[in-house]
């Protein structure tokens, strides 16, 4: 240290405000740190974060074992971050800083034009992996084993391909058209592949996807229905609908993932005009029956898309007064929830199986419900990585 | 515990500072040791046993060496020191290299040797080198043995440098363990450096790490993307480690200790030898003092010098981690140092500095490929990608990543030199007044930005903590 003194001495004179600067800095630092520390002590812990849509870590209980193996220390750090005072504001500040740095994605979500939030391909698709081949094999075997059934497959493309022109410049956009092509080629001739990509792309500017959520809109489902009704064997589809806006404050999962809360979405419900078919919905999982596919209590919660059927159910059936002898079985993910209500007037019964939550046998359902038509309805992202469909269809 | 964490900033640091400054002078070392043990044990309390045993053992051994030496029994002192060095290195080997050694032995001999690698205690590599410097300094008469156990414990465990250095020589810091000056000016200077280090780590290094992680995860990439990834890693590592060192030195200063700088703008060097005088200075000095010079240094025949250099660089490599990649990386740097010393010398200085600088950057960046790749094969593959093995020079990914991170990259490149620091000093320290106020506000905004990242980001550990 001594050897530095002669060099430093003249510097101190030149930098005569250094001492004052660092004094002010120390005071400001201690003030900020202590203030935050005290606020953290005072602030009440939250159980759930609305904006992140997840449960927050709570204060870990102290026990001899957890302290000694170090897990208490680690849990305490999680707790501190999750319950940090003004957490939501810190997160928006971080996002703003990211954007100032030029970042165009956050938490696996692209921040796109017109406030669209779109999942990045890295996050949402697992590519053409083993899961995809297994599902396709299972579907083909199912169709081969049931030549008497009318089997259709509808894989809905995601926002990343339909709204490709909204993505940031040069952003990797995945390869959904090629994946779609691969699926349609692999499916056997017994199955009708219903491709709605062109339909959705044509109407892309009308709002085919929620800005803040990964689902498609009811309008998109309606256009898709118009396009495939004939292939489904529906001869006289409704042309006119009454449109009801049930929510204009919907903040979806992508808002939570990205931390971007700039806009909210509108959720709409389409009721066909001029049909006299009435129906009820049977939910075996909760032993309840309902006169409507819409669950308005969902609008009081976070996920307004759950207004359709109250979310996903392992199995449910819709019994109608159509009386035309057609009984439909849908293997599906959540994209079907806003599509299936449009099918109600044209089937005597519709059974929906969500393989992710269903542990029964598909064959039993075929018998008891006297199924005549089968529809596999997935969005492409989910379909690429799904393993549950193969399980329910009994694939190896 | 990590410096760049909410726990450290908002719980550990304020509590430690308050208790430390309220403690009477006589018991400041007690406060420091206790705080350091909490810092050390957080998340890994079992390691306290190892720390305790090692502290007592090395404390007693240090006194034994000094005693034997004082009695004129240098041979005995040497033997004790040799045994103690071996014991310390054995511990390091057990925790750090057992798995690596077992894998290679079983591959070589075809025997099914399997070892469950123990979790590496925080900072063991740094801790071991600190203790070795203590024992050898006593043996060589550079410093007396520490009789006060608290002072010794404070030297070894001192939390600012415990987990990742700088490796402080005992002889350099011994006087400060008894008598150090606590002043507001010193505290302020330390805080200044700490905040700069925090910003380097949280704002620059971690964000560069995000880009690098994305690029490294790609299954195929153009040459431009591969170079961009390598650039990001080179910058990330520098800001990560130099930021950490800044925080360590700044914290030590806040507690009244002065520690020499560990980085001196290494990327501005114009040769690999110069790079290593400016990158992780304390490690280079350590190897020089305790390995290279005792082996004869450069005061011996050329073949012997070559051997000495090779040994030093192999050790430098393997110190960074138990894998062949680090050995190759060490040798890579060793080769350049040897070439510069023996082959380039006649003409090297005549080359314009800008070309020597480009040569240095290429050598260092290509070297980092071995550093960051998970395996030798992976390193070769990545090097291939950098040299166009994918058949694509430029792709959309490169343009996307570049445009997504241009301000970050610019800030990082500027941060590699002393320019911002000098400008800041000229503006804020010379005239005072408004410039000074703006500077203090800017520091606070930077701190707030760091907190925003710390609250939001998933936990990102300090790169050098694994060594």
What does this structure look like?
The complex is a heterodimer of chains A (396) and B (467). Chain A has 396 residues and is of the alpha/beta class. Chain A folds into two domains: 2-100, no CATH class; 126-392, no CATH class. Chain A has helices spanning 5-14, 18-42, 64-68, 71-82, 87-100, 121-124, 130-145, 159-162, 176-186, 197-202, 218-228, 253-258, 362-368, 380-385, 388-392, and strands at residues 48-49, 54-55, 105-106, 109-111, 117-119, 150-156, 191-194, 241-250, 265-272, 279-283, 288-290, 315-320, 327-332, 349-353, 373-379. Chain A has an eight-stranded mixed beta sheet with strand order 7-6-15-13-14-12-10-11. In chain A, strands 3-4-5 form a three-stranded antiparallel beta sheet. Chain A has a two-stranded antiparallel sheet with strand order 1-2. In chain A, strand 10 (279-283) and strand 11 form a beta hairpin. Chain A starts with a helix and ends with a helix. By secondary structure, chain B is an all-alpha fold. Chain B has two domains: 6-180, no CATH class; 186-409, no CATH class. Chain B contains 21 helices and no strands. In chain B, helix 3 (47-70) packs parallel to helix 6, helix 10 (184-216) crosses helix 21 and helix 11 packs across helix 17. Chain B starts with 5 loop residues before the first helix and ends in an 11-residue tail after the last helix.
What is the secondary structure topology, with strand pairs?
The complex is a heterodimer of chains A (396) and B (467).
Chain A (H helix, E strand, L loop, with lengths): L4 H10 L3 H25 L5 E2 L4 E2 L8 H5 L2 H12 L4 H14 L4 E2 L2 E3 L5 E3 L1 H4 L5 H16 L4 E7 L2 H4 L13 H11 L4 E4 L2 H6 L15 H11 L12 E10 L2 H6 L6 E8 L6 E5 L4 E3 L24 E6 L6 E6 L16 E5 L8 H7 L4 E7 H6 L2 H5 L4
Chain B lengths: L5 H17 L5 H14 L5 H24 L3 H23 L1 H12 L14 H16 L9 H9 L1 H4 L7 H9 L5 H33 L6 H32 L17 H7 L2 H12 L9 H18 L4 H20 L1 H4 L4 H20 L3 H11 L9 H20 L3 H12 L2 H24 L11
């Amino acid at each position: 240290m001594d050897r530095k003194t002669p060099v430093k001495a003249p510097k101190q004179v030149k930098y005569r405000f250094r001492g004052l600067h660092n004094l002010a800095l120390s005071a400001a630092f201690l003030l900020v740190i202590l203030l935050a520390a005290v606020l953290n002590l005072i602030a009440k812990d939250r159980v759930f974060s609305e904006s992140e849509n997840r449960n927050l870590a709570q204060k870990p209980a102290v026990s001899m074992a957890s302290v000694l193996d170090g897990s208490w220390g680690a849990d305490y750090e999680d707790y501190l971050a999750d319950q940090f005072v003004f957490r939501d504001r810190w997160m928006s500040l971080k996002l703003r800083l990211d954007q100032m740095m030029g970042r165009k994605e956050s938490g696996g979500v692209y921040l796109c034009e017109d406030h669209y939030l779109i999942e990045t391909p890295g996050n949402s698709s697992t590519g053409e992996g083993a899961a995809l081949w297994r599902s396709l094999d299972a579907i083909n075997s199912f169709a081969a084993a049931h030549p008497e059934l009318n089997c259709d497959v509808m894989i809905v493309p995601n926002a990343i391909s339909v709204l490709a022109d909204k993505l940031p410049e040069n952003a990797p956009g995945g390869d959904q058209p090629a994946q779609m092509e691969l699926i349609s080629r692999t499916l056997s001739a017994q199955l009708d592949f219903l491709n709605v990509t062109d339909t959705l792309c044509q109407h892309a500017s009308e709002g085919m996807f929620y800005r803040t959520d990964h689902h498609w809109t009811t309008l998109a489902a309606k256009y898709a229905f118009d396009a495939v009704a004939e292939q489904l064997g529906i001869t006289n589809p409704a042309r006119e609908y009454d449109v009801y806006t049930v929510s204009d404050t919907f903040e979806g999962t992508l808002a939570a993932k990205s931390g971007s809360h700039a806009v909210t979405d509108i959720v709409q419900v389409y009721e066909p005009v001029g049909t006299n078919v009435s129906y009820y919905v049977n939910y075996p999982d909760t032993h309840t029956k309902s006169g409507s596919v819409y669950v308005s209590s969902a609008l009081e919660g976070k996920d307004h898309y759950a207004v359709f059927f109250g979310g996903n159910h392992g199995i449910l059936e819709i019994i109608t007064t159509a009386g035309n002898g057609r009984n439909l079985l849908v293997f599906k993910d959540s994209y079907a929830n806003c599509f299936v209500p449009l099918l109600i007037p044209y089937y005597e019964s519709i059974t929906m199986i969500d393989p992710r939550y269903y542990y029964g046998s598909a064959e039993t359902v075929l018998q008891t419900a006297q199924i005549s038509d089968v529809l596999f309805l997935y969005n492409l992202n989910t379909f690429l990585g799904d393993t549950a469909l193969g399980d329910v269809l009994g694939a190896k | 515990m990590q410096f760049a964490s909410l726990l450290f900033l908002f719980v550990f640091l304020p509590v430690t500072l308050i208790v430390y400054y309220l403690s009477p002078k006589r018991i400041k070392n007690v406060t420091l040791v206790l705080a350091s043990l909490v810092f050390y044990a957080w998340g890994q309390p079992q390691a306290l046993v190892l720390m305790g045993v090692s502290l007592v053992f090395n404390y007693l051994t240090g006194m034994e060496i000094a005693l034997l030496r004082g009695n004129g029994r240098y041979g005995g002192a040497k033997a004790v020191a040799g045994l103690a060095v071996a014991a310390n290195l054995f511990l390091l080997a057990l925790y750090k290299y057992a798995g690596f050694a077992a894998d290679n032995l079983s591959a070589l001999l075809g025997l099914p040797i399997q070892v469950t690698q123990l979790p590496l205690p925080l900072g063991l590599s740094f801790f071991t080198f600190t203790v070795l410097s203590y024992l050898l300094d006593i043996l060589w008469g550079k410093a007396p043995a520490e009789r006060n156990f608290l002072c010794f414990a404070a030297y070894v465990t001192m939390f600012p440098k415990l987990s990742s250095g700088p490796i402080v020589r005992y002889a350099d810091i011994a006087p400060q363990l008894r008598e150090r000056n606590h002043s507001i000016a010193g505290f302020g200077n330390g805080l200044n450096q700490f905040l700069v280090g925090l910003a380097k780590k949280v704002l620059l290094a971690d964000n560069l790490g995000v880009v690098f992680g994305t690029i490294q995860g790609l299954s195929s990439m153009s040459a431009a993307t591969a170079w961009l990834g390598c650039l990001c890693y080179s910058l990330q590592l520098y800001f990560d480690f130099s930021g950490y060192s800044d925080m360590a030195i700044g914290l030590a200063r806040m507690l009244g200790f002065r520690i020499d700088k560990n980085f001196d703008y290494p990327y501005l060097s114009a040769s690999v030898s110069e790079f290593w005088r400016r990158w992780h200075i304390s490690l280079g000095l350590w190897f020089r003092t305790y390995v290279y010079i005792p082996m004869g240094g450069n005061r011996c025949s050329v073949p012997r010098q070559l051997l000495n250099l090779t040994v030093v660089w192999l050790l430098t490599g393997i110190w960074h981690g138990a894998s062949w990649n680090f050995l190759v990386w060490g040798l890579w740097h060793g080769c350049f140092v040897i070439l510069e010393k023996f082959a380039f010398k006649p003409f090297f200085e005549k080359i314009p500095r800008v070309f020597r600088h480009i040569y240095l950057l290429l050598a260092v960046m290509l070297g980092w490929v071995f550093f960051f790749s998970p395996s030798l094969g992976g390193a070769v593959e990545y090097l291939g990608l950098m040299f166009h093995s994918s058949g694509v020079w430029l792709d959309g990914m490169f343009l996307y990543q570049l445009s997504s991170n241009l301000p970050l990259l610019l800030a990082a490149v500027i941060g590699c030199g002393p320019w911002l620091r000098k400008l800041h000093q000229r503006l804020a320290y010379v005239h005072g007044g408004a410039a000074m106020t703006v500077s203090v506000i800017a520091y606070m905004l930077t701190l707030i930005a760091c907190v925003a990242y710390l609250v939001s980001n998933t936990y990102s550990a300090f790169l050098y903590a694994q060594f």
